[in-house]
Amino acid sequence: MSTASNPTPPLRKTALNATHRAHRAKMVDFGGWDMPVEYSGLIAEHIAVRTAVGLFDVSHMGDIQLRGPGSLAAVQRLCMNDASRLAVGQAQYSAMLTPDGTFVDDVLVHKLSDNDYLIVINAGTRDKDVAWVRKQIGAMPSIHISDYSDYYTQLAIQGPRAEATLAKLTDTDLSAIKNYWFTYGKVCGLYNVMIARTGYTGEDGFEIYIPSDEPTSSRVWGEVLNAGAEFGILPCGLGARNTLRLESAMALYGHEISDSINVFEANLARYAKLGKGFDFVGRAALAAIQAAGGPKRKLIGLEMIERGIGRDGYPVCTVTGERIGEITSGSPAPFLKKNIALAYVPMQYAALDELLAVEIRGQLVKAKVVATPFYKRAKKST
Amino acid sequence: MAYPADYRYTKEHEWISVAGATGIVGITDYAQSSLGDIVFVDLPKVGDTLEAGKVFGSVESVKAVSDLFSPVSGTVTAINEELKEKPEWINADANTTWMLKLDLTNPAELDTLLSAAQYEAFIAEETGH
Predict the structure, then answer these.
(1) A216, A247, A278 - which closes a domain
(2) For A41, A150, A151, B27, which has the most beta carbons within 10 A of its beta carbon?
(3) At A46, which CATH number?
(4) Residues A168 and A310 reside in one and the same domain
């Protein structure tokens, strides 16, 4: 009966939703969230982050905190990287796996203190992730699992002038924060703001976590834009966030990683510490895949060498037209000014410089396998 | 941006400007704005025959691909070759950046297209404003 059908749930909004709309951002439904896809224009925003600084609202990301004696063991059980290597104030890229060695989600694990960890998760997988964490470690005594996702407005300030921008708003010595470390400081008059040198753009930058009430969120958003004005800061949408992470070949859940793609296929085995001395979920499957000689397909970088743009879902073929795989993310790369893509293909086609083709609306358009990341920022000169 | 009153429009967001039996075709300001930064335009060749309402090419922004639909039937007489190198001109001024010229086979087809006022009402309805 039509009356019994589930209504579409309303789009979720971040505390900055009214701010985005007031500033005429173009909004889209992103995984159930009403988010800005672009402000002044995707290419300009992308270039601002590569050459100056950009500001992103990433409050739709989720935050799960694990606290209490044994919380290290809980993180070690849940996540494939070795959290015992983290010092207080340090973060690491990791992932929660299914028993098959495929992805529940990729995450950033932050060690807040002994027995206190913050796991930052993706927006589209929030509810699933929280349920997964409770299922896996909910029975462990003395661990408090808290979903703080709605408590924080998370802002990403990204680009070579990110430090100079944020420095105007804090008394914290930002230069002392190393990549993938974090500290707490006063930002825009707010005490104890978590300031992390992390991001999803392939550029230097920071992510700050402020209270998610609307006046505070919009005030800080505005103050960051004012502080960055002299450097050419632009407010950025998720469109630029996607092209920036693609140039840097960072995985996106639902594209390069999912519950049907394993860690070896996704080229993320360097973050899976099978020998960390802790039996994490998915470990046995990864060991079995390794023992069987590794994966049968692999994530590769493609660069179009004929005119055409390979996009998400387009078939990847041999030059004679045999379909061998599929693009997971493909787009023009605004900074590199090339058309690039990430795709899964059988191992025998994954060698660098292999000539392949992408089927674009029935036409074979030539592409070649190239090294990833497509873009790597220059090391900081002193 | 205003929509020129002497153009005719499709519900797929193309415009056509007609002088005698020759038409000039482009996409509307609403279309370029919805697409965002345009990076690629795929157009037919001079001499190709287009059919009203059928796909004749595509336009791509960084994040999306959109088919182009011919407002009328006709034979292509010119292509704006500069768009190969400068597709962003469409973003800068969609009303005057043409894609192709064609000789109309059936000028009566123009009567099925939208006027500027009708097109504006149509996009207002489409965007829910």
Answers:
(1) A247
(2) B27
(3) 3.30.1360.120
(4) no
Spatial separation of the C-alpha atoms in residues A245 and A106, rounded to whole Å: 14
A381 domain-assigned: yes
Q: Residue B62 is nearest to which of A43, A308, A361, comparing CB atoms?
A: A43
User: Considering CB atoms only, which of B40, B60, B62 is closest to A42?
Assistant: B62
| pLDDT recorded at residue A382 | 43
Total domains present in chain A: 2
Other CB atoms within 10 A of residue A15 CB? 21
pLDDT at B42 over 80: yes
Contact B36 A41 (CB under 8 A): yes
| CATH code of A339's domain | 2.40.30.110
User: Does ipTM top 0.90?
Assistant: no
In the CATH hierarchy, which fold is given to the domain comprising B8-124?
Answer: OB fold (Dihydrolipoamide Acetyltransferase, E2P) (2.40.50)
Q: What are the angstrom distances between the C-alpha of B123 and each of B28, B38, B102?
A: 11, 20, 26
Contact B62 A26 (CB under 8 A): no
* Cβ-Cβ contacts under 8 Å, A358 against chain B: none
- CB distance A332–B39 less than 8 Å? yes
The whole-number average pLDDT for the span B63-81 is 97
pLDDT in tens, A279-294: 999 999 999 999 999 9
**Does residue A222 belong to the interface with chain B, where contact is any CB pair within 8 Å?**
no
Whether A228 and A369 share a structural domain: no
Query: A365 is in which domain, residue-wise?
Result: 296-382
Nearest CA in chain A to B36: A41
Predicted structure pTM score = 0.94
| Residue A112 maps to a domain | no
Q: Among A247, A265, A287, which residue terminates a domain?
A: A247
